[in-house]
Structures are given as structure tokens and as C-alpha cells.
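Lab notebook, page 48
Experiment: co-folding of the full assembly
Goal: obtain a model of how the components sit together before planning crosslinking
Operator: M.T.
Materials (sequences as entered):
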Amino acid sequence: MVSPLAAVLLIFLVLPIVLIVIVSFWRATEFSIIPAFEFDNYAFLFGSPVTYTVFFNTFKYAVITWACTLLIGFTVAYYLAFHIRSQTWQIALFLLCTIPFWTSNIIRMISWIPFLGRNGIANSTLMSWGVIDDPIEWLLFSDFAVILAFVHLYTLFMVVPIFNTMMRIDKSLIEAARDAGANGAQILWNVIIPLTKPGIMIGTIFVVTLVMGDFITVRFMSGSQSANVGRLISNDIALLQYPSASATAIVLLLTVLITIGILLRFVDIRKEL
Amino acid sequence: MSKQDLELVSVTKRYGATVAVDAINYRFKSDSYTCLLGPSGCGKSSTLRMIAGHESVSDGSIVLAGRDVSHLPPAQRGTAMMFQNYALFPHLSVLDNVAFSLKMKGAETAKRHAQAHEMLELVDLTNLAGRLPDQLSGGQQQRVALARALITRPQVLLLDEPLSALDPFLRIRMRGELRKLQKELGISFIHVTHGQDEALALADDIIVMNNAVIEQAGPAQDVFNAPQTQFVAQFMGGHNVVALPTGHFAIRTDAVSVTEPKQGAVEGNVTAVEYQGTHVSLSARITGDQEVIAIIPDSTFFANPHHPGDLIGLHWDANDQHKLTA
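Observation: model returned without errors.
Model output:
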């Protein structure tokens, strides 16, 4: 007998993926989609140089965003966990970090546009200060803007798991390290970072999967000048090329799974779950 | 008095308006085992943590081997601390835990592992060097913590309730090992505990603390035999505290003997008799509604048994009667 929860998982998770797998083998022409079992979609995908560029771009966004969110997220979590003494303040500041997340992703993303635009706040301020004479062109509709938006959107996904792991570190371990003569940097490197690894790994998984699956941020912030895999899929869907979209989606899904699989080889996160 | 002595000079710890340790003075004997004893919240742990350097000194100074260490970082004081829950690094093997302080000093891997192995030999753990702390029993973890503290070659080892996490059987075995280790190494151990039996079993000197001050300090035997205050007499146990016309006195329960009525120092009514194996604990109510306990060898008691309600005399030597100052 299948329990109700298993049924929910089956209907809402497994079944859609199975459908996507099936559709990815169908044949599509300009005007029709024909159920079939052929590898044309995959052959076309792997045969096109665009695919490789787009996948490279996707990885590039993921890696740079990961590095930035890790740096910011770790610092914020470290500050909250080890420098704020009272628990009330810890909770208050932690909630403060989450406030931006009460607004929709798209609105937070779009609100960068008037700030970064050619005649936006950033450029006009810099010009009025005399730092620059002409507006900086690469602030908006560039890879810079895409990554800025990603970092802004997803840093919290790094902060939360890292903060959670850090809060579980026994404070007497830090005293023990100090007793053994470790200075601040040595404590950070030899005690805190190794013990925070599982949290870092969970945050990494969140950020990498979110960035690799995204398409709307790339479209808005690059002004449709850059593409990642998500945009490839969304374009196919707009053209009603469902089989091709499905094939791309499956390849992306496998890529993400392999990436996570490799990450999990390095760190055991079971204790955190 | 040796130059290696540790001395507390009017050491004070304040947390806001509360005073945790109130201007205590004490000179620790070198190469001795000292227990800081007291109920929870008496300031004993704060005192230890100030000596270790994990708590700042609000006032006064801590002098070790002739220099004021009150404001030095923990590792530069010549002390090492063993933490209550051992605080072993869960991600490091036993060997790396022990070698941690050498690594912080920048010692080469081979050299620090060799030294750590020596320390593990001292605590008899060489065969477990590769294990992680999670894979050890409580007693083994404690020995790793001990080895990790001792590898810094401290002049004073500070132990914060080191036995409280162990089961009673292991506690007795480990306290024997601690005592033996202190003798072998010839350094001072300062051990915080709330168990008077632990303190008596281990210590050369006992410092009894209460309400942020030292109530009494001295050789274990003196503290137990001749308590100066009511608090010490009651906390150390084994004493009757009685109010006599000449003042308050502490009398050891095993110094009290039972006589026929009118032949002892005071008269009393037996209220309870408890057989405890090697001896019998007899409670009696004397004038002023005070309870006196007499511990009597079982053979003596059963030769002439008493029952609740009996009128008896209680006797003790004047030498066994210690006047209490507070």
C-alpha cells in the first residue's frame, strides 16, 4: 500500500520528471510534435556550439556567485555567531537579514535597474562627485549586473545554513584553541572553518542549484545580451519546441546532480539534516 | 616558598553589579594538588577561569612564578586548562588534538607527532592515536584532554570539574590516575569540584568557597577536621553543628558516642536509627530542638542497641569540639 505522502511525491515530483524524460525523446517539426523515441534532440543539443557556450556561461555565473555569496555569507554568519554576545541581538539581526526576502525576487531584481542604469543613481552620484566624467556603461545589462543580482538574491541561502552550523560549535572549543596558543586567524582556519564545512556545503548546494536553474535574472539584468541554460529552455518553450526544451532540461538536471554529487564527496552533511 | 608559586592577590570578578569573586587572596603551594570546592555559583569556576585567562580580572592580580600574568593571553601564562566537557576538536584525530598547540606554534608535522606520541604514552592511549574523539569512551576522551593540556608543559594545570561527566565507577578510577599523574609530573594541579569526597580524596590543600569569598583554606585534613564556619562544617559533611551556651561548635559525627542517660555531655531522645553496614547512624534530639548524629561502629551499637524514643546520653571529647566563628 502506498502511503499518502509517497503518493504526493510520486504525483508532484517523480511523474513530471518522467514526463519530461519521455517528451525529450519526441520528434518536433516546425508545426507539430510527434511522439517517438529518437535521439535527435540530444544529437542537436550536443552538436551545437551554442550549447557549450551557454553551459560555460551557466557555470561561470554559478562559480562567481558562489564565491561572492560564500565570502559575504560566511562573514555575516561569523559576525552573528561569534561577535554578537546576546541571543536577543543575534535573533534580531538574523531576522533583519531575512527582511528583504519578504519581497518577491523579481521586484528586488528590477529595483536594481533604476540604480544601475546609464542615468541611474549610481552613475549620477559618481558623476556629481567627480569620480567619473562619463556614465559607466557596464553597470547595467552586463555580466556584472547579473552576478550582482544573483549575489543579492541568494546570499541569505548561504548565511542561514552557515549560521546554523556555527551556532552548534561548542564555545569551549574556541577557548581550548586559545588555551593552546592559537591566534584569531588560526582559530578561524583550524577550528571554525573545518567545523562549518557542512553548513558551507548546504549553502553551496542551494546557491549552485538556484543559479544554474535561473533564467529570469539573466534575462532582465543582462538585457537579453547573455544567456544561460535556463534561457535556452525558456526560448525553446516560447517557440513551442517542447521536446528540445525537455532534452536541455534533462541535460541540465544531470549536470546539476553530478555537480552536487561531486560536492558531497568532499563533505559529510548528514549530521546537519 | 618556591619561586614557582601561584598567588592570587585580591582577585575580583564583577559581572555588572554582581560580584562573582570578591577580593580573594591565596598562595598556592608549588607542586601540590589543590581543590577549589564549593556549591554552584560560589565563584570557584570564575576563579579558575581567571587564572587560565579565559575570564578577565576585574581587580587584583594573579602572580605566577614572580610575574603578574593577569593580563596575558592564556597560552603565555604557563597554565593549561582541561575543560569540563573536555572540548576536544571533533574534526581532528586524537594525535592531532594532542599536537594542536605545537601546530599553532608552527612545529613541523614529524616533530609534533613525535611529541604527541610521547604524551599519549603518558596517558596510555598510543593505540588509539588515529581515532576521532567521537569514537572514544568518556574516560579515554578525558585522557586525551589531559594529554593535550600537558603537552604545553604548563607549570600549573587547571581542571574544571574534570570528573563530573564520568560515571561513578570511572570517576573513582580517574581520580586515582589524576593524583598519580600530578605526583609523577611534579607540577601544580588546581581542580574545581563541588564534591567534597572528590576534594578529600585528591587534594593536598582544599579551598572552600562560598558567596564569592574563601570560607576556609588549608590542608585537606585540617579543613575536614576543624571547620571554622558553619558553612564549611555542613558542606564538608560528617559534622554536627550544635549551639551550646558557650557558642556554636562543630563535632564530627564519628566522635560522638552514646552513653547511659546522665553520663554524657548532653541528654537526647533517639529519633532515628539507620543501619549502614559497617556502622550505624543514630539521630538524637537534644535541648534546643537540635539534632545530633552519632556514627557508631555496628558491633558497639548492637552490643547495646537503642530504639527511637529512648533517652540516652551523648558524649564527646572536648578536643573534638571545634568552635565556629560564623
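Interpretation: Chain B has two domains: 6-225, 238-323.
Next step: discuss with group before ordering constructs.
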